[in-house]
Each structure stands twice: as structure tokens, then as C-alpha cells.
């Protein structure tokens, strides 16, 4: 079975993560109900004629995808796999509101056409004229992880060599406002703003020098705080890794009462430095793709930005990073990376 | 041989079970009619393949509490997924590593479009805020079936369920899962009715796939699921295999967001990949369950692709969307169920409403029920975004 390596990682987020060479140096605090991403200069990545009709998520996705390919010096991937929790919610709301506002009359197709969940994957393929395998996962907080697991499967089974995989979500306006209200009505609700962003990666079965290895990953739909510990143990055992080998844990804490799952996992890997990130980029269904970008940068640069540290110290010599994310106690994912 | 299929469940306009679907297919009885359950200005100008049960009927039959927040997509999905598990004689899902993969395009749109403007203030409506996203119906069905491990949702427009089935097979082949309940569900919605209306590809008559004078598609709603199991489980449990999934292929047309290319490149590549994986030559295919939406663009593009793959010997083919309407994300698995029935019955189902071959290709689908030896069936599903997928089913 082939190994899986990360050849590039690119992220557009509420922080300055896309342009420049820095790594989470000038963090700006985020607050409020929602926080938009810092959008790149789209015309560097998309022809203006094409981007005019694209909604935020499509533009972010296509830009991040193109830069990920450039960084990996790859022209044509063997597969394009995306994950999105809410899909093209901007165009969905737009079309829905025209239906309601115009009482089903005088509608134009553009926003309907762009509202399908696979629009980002399709637009990337169209831009590259890439006729390869193309798939889109839309399963809440494991949308991105499902896409990554599909990529892992394709590489391990030697159905592909180089794959473009990414996660993207845009805020939209209406549904997100209602989701925020529901969250704020609950004192144990999510304590960070809702956010948006796009993170794309080239994953490959080819071992380049300094490539980061995706050792393994696992997903599960539901688990208790106890069973999640058992699952982590199984996962590490299966990969012949001791809990004490893990240098850094990146947890998807968002301040709600389900953070106890992270506590539960954290106690198993006691001596790690634990990082968090949703206080910097907000919570959204594909927010965890940002943590994969973060892990990639940490392993490459051997540096731990202070703004990420939740618990423990800024150690050097980082070899193993474990990512753990869940949403409201379901859709759990483990990703294990190795330098 | 491929991956074994041991169970199936379905609900569509032509029946609420595999048995009912079979009798409708054998009797050439279409389920396409006038819209009943959705209030829309366009109801007089369209024909649809609607499931006759209302949400209240489904709630009762599924024994759900009345204050549930299932969308219609979730209700239809649960109905069919339960039936599939039962058909596969599975009582204890935890006995083997079992996954659930579902496909949908509309997700919770049927409720969102009803309650969007009440979400801010109406506590009754607010329960549907969380059911909007596409993963919601999948999560609910998985929870009800007690499937707790690998659960995910795929959305690649009208090829979604075919891609879900493909993933299920790959997970079993890779040894990651022993058993997968896989399929798709899509309810009719005002959103999709209006969307297809703006594209002007919805017919006001019964759809006539592959006909020279085809006027467009009829939308439909449905849910269907298959149970795929590993050879080890089949051997251990001495299970009856209904059919095998012997090949699959996924390619992108990379031509246009909604239109298919003139030479049907994506479709051609998907069919080629599927044949290659199944280690079959084109002449081994005895029947094609075509995508055949009855839109001018799809049927021409697909016909050209068929001629590119099969040359002058295009096998017997038909589009069963003339029975069910185009059930979007569910289409791939609805047609998988029909293909398996065709293998079991050694019968090919007709392409209803066909009169005149299109001048560009002269291809003529099967127009009446035919008893025939059928060993391998190829089934196509293509979608917006250039997503093209092909599945091949083989006789058990």
C-alpha cells in the first residue's frame, strides 16, 4: 500500500494566511457574529470574465486550488476532490429569495446553476480542462475529511498519483444569521464567530524530500467521550504510534460545551502541546481544513506560532502532529501527520 | 467479479418497494403525473414523478414522533434505507464494520423554502434551520439505523448516487469496511422546479428520452439504497447475492457548468473506465440503462458517447426516467435497483414515449418489455458541473 504525502498546502482564512511568506505572525483578533475571510487578489488566479459570475466560495476555492497546484508544481491532477458543508449558500439564498420575492416569476438561471454543491470542483476542472475523477463531499464537519479520505484511498490503491483536495465554505447571509441566533440562545453554544475560508492541498503517493506524510486518518459519525478515547487508542495502535510520540495536538475547540471531547482526547496525549485555531478563523463545517494547513506549516517550518497555543509550551523538533475535530459531539475526525 | 450486492430498498413514483417497482416496470406503468404535494405557480405546466405518500403518511409509516425535524429528503431516505437493510437480512449492524453513504442535491431545501422567512421568529420553524445542510438527512438515517462509524454524503448533482456507490465499493475493496448501506435521496422542491424552469429544460408533457422531438425532462423524487458486502461477510453469513457491481468510472466533461459537450467526452471516458475496471469489452454489455433525461442536450451528447464506445453495435438501451422522472441525486441508485431487477428477471424495460429516432444518430431505444439473456448492464449518470459516472452490474 502506497504512502500519502502532502506536496503543498494553501489556506484562505480570516487571517492573513494566503499572501506573503509569513506564518500566523500578525494575528488580528476576531469577534462578532460572523467573520469574513481575507480575500486574495482574485485576478492573480482567475480570469476576470470567469470570476464575475462566481460567488465567494467558488472564487476562494478556485484561487486556493490554483495556488496549491502552483506550489506543488503540478499542472494536471489525477483527481479533484472537494468538501463543503453548506455548499454554495450565497447563490442558494439568492435564488431562493428571488423565488419568494418575485413569486416564482422572472427568474434567471445563473444563481441556480451556481448553487449546486459541486460548483467549486466543477469550476476548478473547467479552468484546468481536467477530465479526471471529480467528486464533492457535503457531510457537515467531515466534508473535508471525507474528501481527504477519498484521496487517501485513491493514492493507496494506486488509482491516482497526484490529487488536488480541498475544503471550502462561504458565509452567506441569511441561514448563517439564523444559525447564530440559535447558537446565542444557548449559553453553552459556540463561543467563536462563524467564519469561512478555503484550504487546498496537493496530496501524492510520491515521496519528495521534506514532504510531510499523512500517516493515516479516521472518521466516525457518533461517539461518546469515553469511546472517542478508545478510538484514538485503536487508531494510534493500528499505526504503531505511541501516545507519547505525539508532539502537537491541534484541536477544533470552539468554546461550546462539546469541548469536553477535546479534554477527553487531550488527557490521552498528556505531554503534548495543544493548539487551537477557531478563535482565529471562526467555526464552519470545513474549518478543520485550516488545521491541516497549520500542521503542514508547523512541520515544515518547525515553528509553533504563539497565537495557536492552548496548552503547553512552544517546543522545537516536532515530528508527529495529531488533528482532532468534532462538531456538537458528532462527525469526529483524527488525522495523523509525520515529518 | 466485483462487489456483492445483497439488499435493496426503494421508494419512487412507481412504487414504495422493490416489488411494486418491479410490477410497474413489467407493466410499462409510468409514475409521472400532475404535481400534488408542492404549491407552485408552475404546477399546471409541468409533469413530475412524485412519491404518492405525504410527509404525514411517511411519518406514520416510519413511526416517528410528530414533532420530528426530518425533511422530506430525510423521510424518503429513511424509508428506503430501512427497506434495504431488511432486504439484506441485517438485524445487527454492529456485527461488522458498517458504513452509510448517501447522496443528495437538495438536502433540506423542501423545508428551508417553506420556512426561510419564519426562521427568525417562529420556534416551530426553527427546528428546520439545522436540517438545511446536505448532511442532515444522512446523519438522521445513520442514527436511526445505528450506523455510528463511517458516514458521509456526496453531492455531484445528478451523478451523486453513482459516485456514492463507487465509493462504497472502493471502501470494501480496500478492506476499510465490511458492509456499506449506500444510495441517495432527493425530494421534489420548489427550488429545483423553478431552477429547471429557468433553464427551459422541463417538459410540460410526459418526457420522451432519445426522441427526435423530445421537449425536456420531468423532475422526480425518490430514495433508494443498496447493501454492499465483502466476500468474507458473504461467505461467513452464507448470504444470497442479488448481483455484483463489477465496474465503475468517474470522469469530468470539463466543458460547461450545465451543458454536456457535443462529443460526450466525459460520458465516453466514464464508460471506458468502467468497462476497463470490469475487464469487459463493449460487446459484453447486454443492456444500457441510459442517463437519458430527455433534454435535447443530454440525449444527443449521450448518444454520441454511446456510439463512440460501442460503434455500430450499441446494445439494447432505454431510459427509465420515463417511469420515474429525473430523481436527481437519487437517479444513479434508482437505476441501479432497476438494473438489478433487470438482471434478476432477465428482462429489459422499455423507454416510454419514444416515437422518432433523432436524425443526428438514428439510435433507437427499446420501446417495449423484452425478455432477454442479460449478463452485464451498464448504467449512466451525468450531472451539472460535468460530473459523469458509469456503473456496471453483473448477474449473480
Explained architecture:
The complex is a heterodimer of chains A (339) and B (396). Chain A has 339 residues and is an alpha/beta fold. Chain A has two domains: 5-204, Thiolase/Chalcone synthase (Peroxisomal Thiolase, Chain A, domain 1, 3-Layer(aba) Sandwich), CATH 3.40.47; 212-338, Peroxisomal Thiolase, Chain A, domain 1, CATH 3.40.47. Helices cover 33% and strands 21% of the residues of chain A. Chain A is built from eleven helices and eleven strands. Chain A has helices at residues 48-51, 56-71, 89-101, 110-113, 119-128, 143-156, 174-184, 225-238, 260-268, 278-281, 288-301, and strands at 5-12, 79-83, 133-137, 162-169, 197-204, 212-222, 248-251, 273-275, 309-311, 320-327, 330-338. Chain A has an eleven-stranded mixed beta sheet, sandwiched between helices. In chain A, helix 2 crosses helix 5 and helix 8 runs parallel beside helix 9 (260-268). Chain A is globular. Chain A starts with a strand and ends with a strand. The mean pLDDT of chain A is 96. Chain B is α/β, with parallel strands linked by helices and 396 residues long. Chain B folds into two domains: 3-237, 3-Layer(aba) Sandwich (Peroxisomal Thiolase, Chain A, domain 1), CATH 3.40.47; 246-395, 3-Layer(aba) Sandwich (Peroxisomal Thiolase, Chain A, domain 1), CATH 3.40.47.10. Helices cover 33% and strands 19% of the residues of chain B. Chain B contains 13 helices and 15 strands. In chain B, the strands form three sheets. Chain B has a ten-stranded mixed beta sheet, with helices on both faces. In chain B, strand 14 (376-382) and strand 15 (387-395) form a beta hairpin. In chain B, 63% of the residues are buried. Chains A and B meet through helix 3, helix 5, strand 3, helix 6 and helix 7 of A and helix 4, helix 6, strand 5, helix 7 and helix 8 of B.
